[in-house]
Amino acid sequence: MASKSAGKIMKHNHRKVAILKTGLSIGDADAVMIVPFNSTKPSGSTPFVLAKTWVRNYWMPLDQVSVVKAAEVVYPCTSPARLPAGLLKTVLKEVDKVSQ
């Protein structure tokens, strides 16, 4: 199983996601906080963070942040491999604003 760390881009249910936090739990299972990593801009007034990567631009809709079992998140074998540290901090700040 691939190692999970904050900032890594992986897949959950065949969709790219960014791991925001690790070390969480759901019952007895390890869990991670994820956000979709979409190549299309969200419609309407959906709050999002734009990630400009060397591959393309990606949008992370903040209303779709979720906590899932770590075993459900798998290695994607696609680029980019991870979020830059500064961008990860920005996303976490925005998630905190939206969740309040």
Word description of this protein:
It is a single chain. The chain is an alpha+beta fold and 100 residues long. 15% of the residues lie in helices and 40% in strands. It has one helix and seven strands; from the N terminus they run βββββββα. The strands form two sheets. It has a five-stranded antiparallel β-sheet. The longest helix has 15 residues.
Q: What would the keywords be for this entry?
A:
single chain, 100 residues, five-stranded antiparallel sheet, two-stranded antiparallel ribbon, 1 helix, 7 strands, 40% strand
Largest sheet, strands/sense/barrel: 5 strands, antiparallel
For the biggest β-sheet, the strand order reads 6-3-2-1-7
Beta-strand content = 35-45%
Q: What is the β-strand count?
A: 7
Mean pLDDT: 89
Brief summary:
This protein has 100 residues and is an alpha+beta fold.
Could you give the topology of this structure?
Blueprint: E1 9-12, E2 15-26, E3 29-36, E4 48-52, E5 57-61, E6 66-69, E7 73-74, H1 85-99
Antiparallel strand pairs: 1-2, 1-7, 2-3, 3-6, 4-5
